[in-house]
Amino acid sequence: MSIRKAFFLVFGLMLLQITTALHAQWEKQPEFPGGSDAMISFINSIFRYPSEAVDKKVQGRVITNFVIEKDGSVTEVKLVRGVDSLLDNEAIRILGLMPKWKPAEQWRSSEQASSIVRVRFTLPILFKLDDEGNALSYKDGLKKAEEERKQERERRAKKRLFE
Fold first, then answer.
1. What pLDDT score does 81 carry?
2. 119 near 15, Cβ under 8 Å?
């Protein structure tokens, strides 16, 4: 399974509820330059697992969200659900370094044209340790999380067989 599929299976990119200035429906989704694989590679290249968090054996999924502006810039970075301040700060740092995205477009039937719109985007950032307690890279963390999820599905299927 590709890293991209694992990423979407484990987390899924989700869009949150609209506020008055943001749009939830659009014709064309916002896109990280180069697509999902490029976003995973970008995050992996700047990902730093805080050493203090490794020492404390802290791991988990930090849920963040941000607005992709009409010019593609990432603004209004917020923490939706944190794990620990060390991991939360790293996730926010990563989002603050993101390049401009290709913005979303919304079709306006009354005008028979599309326009660029602001969109709120939610992105989970995974921090995972290996079995010995060592920090995994972002990509390796995604792979491990998908393997664990697969094992859990298999365990549940076996359990159903014997009920």
1. 94
2. yes
Show me where the domains of the chain are located. Answer: 3-161
pLDDT in tens, 6-44: 444 444 444 333 333 455 555 778 889 999 889 999 999
Give the pLDDT of residue 9: 42
Residues 6 or more apart whose Cβ sits within 8 Å of residue 124: 11, 61, 62, 63, 64
Tell which residue, 48, 47, 27, has the closest CA to residue 39: 47
**51 exposure class (CB count in 10 Å sphere: 0-12, 13-18, 19+):** exposed
Taking the C-alpha atoms of residue 103 and residue 47, their distance in angstroms, rounded to an integer, is 24
* Confidence grade of residue 162 (pLDDT, cut at 50, 70, 90): confident
Extract the tokens encoding 94. 């990563």
Distances (CA, A) of 69 to 26, 73, 116: 14, 5, 9
- CA separation for the pair 53, 84 (Å, rounded): 8
- Amino acid identity, position 51: S
Other Cβ atoms within 10 Å of 102 Cβ, number: 16
DSSP symbol at 56: T
Which SS3 state, helix, strand or coil, does residue 92 take? helix
